[in-house]
Amino acid sequence: MTTVTTRTIAYAADGLTMIGHLALPAGVDRRPVVLVGPEGVGLSDVERRRADALAELGYVALAFDLHGGRYLGDPEEMLARCLPLLADPDRMRGIGHAALDVLRAEPRADPDRIAAVGYGTGGAIALELGRDGVDLRAIATVNALTTGRPGEAARIRCPVWAGVGSEDPIMPPAQRDAFTAELQAAGVDWRLVVYGGALHAFHHPPVDHIVRPGVGYHPQHAQRAWRDVVDLLAECLPITE
């Protein structure tokens, strides 16, 4: 196991001071980069640990913030902030670009080798970066089968992997179909994995606050989804080229 160095980074986005978590692998050389986006509740130790795990694998990883250092455990407060955000592609892109700027300023980061991994709202932001034409090597999303503005998926220049629970009421079959139809029409290299019996946010360990109906942890599928993400990175963003 390699030694990982972490630090907190403050940066401006969406009119807020965001508080991101940067994880660096051992060594001094430049490494490929992974942007990690959190669920709508905001950055938590779950995403911080995932950034650390990616750094263990040899990536420079930034778990970015959504709410100016806040974690929105109240579902109504979370929806009040996230629904307008999800309806505004330019705001999502602004949050994503601000995080990318932090990564590109990191001396250990290779700015020509970047992937984006996102969960829920963070996954929607990863997709919007692709639709904005950002030169990414891969996009991976869980619980984020969001569609974009007409025609903009054609600007995605990398493979897209998406995971969703079969019983997710927030991302039902009609949403899955719309998402895959958009990517197929745009000629994107896409994959969709439907995890049988899983609910929304199946990857996220249980929390100590009220959650929306249809949300639930599935430990086996959580491990499988993480392995799928790591495999995608190994394929599209290998540590050595």
UniProtKB/TrEMBL annotation:
It comes from the Bacteria. Keywords: Hydrolase. InterPro entries: AB_hydrolase_fold (IPR029058), Dienelactn_hydro (IPR002925), FrsA_esterase (IPR050261). One of its GO terms (molecular function) is hydrolase activity. Residues 20-235 form the Dienelactone hydrolase domain. Belongs to the AB hydrolase superfamily. This is Dienelactone hydrolase family protein. It comes from Streptomyces endophyticus.
